[in-house]
Amino acid sequence: MAGTGPVTARYAGVVVSGTVPGRDRVACRESAGRVGAMMGRQHACCGLLVGVALAGLVPSAPLPVRGLVVAVAGGAALLPDLDHPGATAARSLGLLTRVIAHAVDWVSLTVYHATRAPGDPAERRSGHRTLTHTVPGCLLPGLLLTVAGLLWPVSLAVACSLLTGLLALGLRRAGLLLLVVSSVVSWWTLTTYPGWWWLVSVAVSCGCLVHLAGDWVTEAGVPLLWPLQSEQCRWRLLTAPVTFPAGSPVETQIVAPLLLLGLLVEAFWATGLLGAVVAAVSPEVSG
């Protein structure tokens, strides 16, 4: 709803009320309760969508490389939620990823307090939906993977295996089996086609960025403008003009089927099957 009005925000159990110019929903706030982020399965589907699109932009890449890019982007779309110990990414490898999640949460909270503007509440005690939900924070994993790949090439295969396994967990399909298979496939693909390793790093950043887009269209919002300051806030959570509650029937019964349909259409288009089907069902035009 447009206009200026009172805003009630919840920061890890602390409610902060105030008046913020502009839309109520773009106030400096951390949503709680029913206002959450998009569900993991939908994030994974969004990642697959952007992965297929990315693979379609490099038709010269070998088919195994393009397939790996799609899977990696799907898994990377779950990475930004590694700042929350209860998220799918944090549960992917048990105690190890839970420890990492707590570390990411701590780093994110530290960055928040180090960079917050006067309008950003000082009461925040959680780093969820802060650093890893910014554009720089989404580009960072791809950059780190690039550096790691240059220094230690085997790290690319390890990352691909973990991200593909994370994708399976996000889709809730054969996580352990896919993790084992993806380890072998990732190693074979990256050693057989070493010249395409950079595409994996791009896929990781693209997957993280599409996570932002997913949360942007929910009522949760993301600090899209960070580190820029606006209306005395640097961590203002922005949302799309039209949003829906995460986990609501809108997401599960409308958005999810549309994502699946879009993924199927895009996959058919990328493989050339869509054109073949259209040509087969279209009536021939006699000259």
TrEMBL record:
GO function term, MF aspect, one: hydrolase activity
Keywords: Hydrolase, Membrane, Transmembrane, Transmembrane helix
Keyword Cell wall biogenesis/degradation annotated: no
Residue stretches spanning the membrane: 139-167, 174-190, 258-281
InterPro entries: YdjM-like (IPR007404)
Segment forming the signal sequence: none
Entry protein name: Membrane-bound metal-dependent hydrolase YbcI, DUF457 family
